[in-house]
Task: structure prediction
Amino acid sequence: MNRRSMKKVLITGISGFAGSHLAEFLLSKTEYRVSGTYLLEERARNIAMLKKNIKLIKVDLTKIKGVNDLIRSINPDYVFHLAALTSPAVSFKNPLITIENNIAAEMNLLSAVKDNNLFNTRVLIVSSAEVYGLVRKENLPIDEDTQLMPTSPYAVSKIAQDFLGLYYFLSHSLKIVRVRPFNHIGPRQSPNFVVAAFSRKIAEIEKGKVKPVIAVGNLEAKRDLTDVRDMVKAYVLAIEKGKFGDVYNIGSEKSYKISEILDKLLKLSKVKISVRIDKSRFRPVDTPELLCDATKFRKLTNWKPQIPIDFTLKDTLDYWRRMV
Result:
């Protein structure tokens, strides 16, 4: 394909978990020219294998001048906004930092798109299923009209990001699509998240680096889990087919107890491991269950996850076996 006819794509947070997988997927096609932002050098290892094929820009999205320069230099057709502080658990320790960072980064990005008159640029705002928070059992599964009941500073920041996207669509006519992904897992995820944390610990135990004990928090919570490689395909469908201004839930429509996920990983372990409850790992408030109703998105795109949960768990564990 002629380079001029290729779509120019900007991925904020390209070195992150979902960002690196999204870049990999887009580069497997022939119609995209991919650029991406990163901030921390240590995260760049996630995209080391892609560096030759992408344009990498180190920029702090909370600084407006750098963001303006970024948008002006790339003039993107598509923007996937993934950069954020992403851990609900960590947000309890630094609530103001999480909220300020996530709001400022998106505000600067959308302002730069508007101020550079990029009214044909499509922007995907990635919110989170965490915005739904404390959902009553009778209101499961969760559709897009479910009441927002945030239970963490991170969730509050994602509501703000979600509604900033809506504001820029309504008030400035930017071509914005919003998505609320449910939990996604797989290789390269930060050990701040439960499946990656379990997998890293098992890998460390197998190599004799730590004692054969896993300390855990609340194992009764249930989460809707999707492989990240399925999720990023959904992001591309959303930006290409989504109705501007609208919002879509994305998830597997099946929830698993965290205890069930841990049992599956322990069965893959090469050594015997014991489990110990650690009350310090419990959140101040924990959502009992998140279960996605993805009917709206499925009807629009025909998307559904293809990768089985057991494959994802083995792949994640094998990733950490290579890393530790």
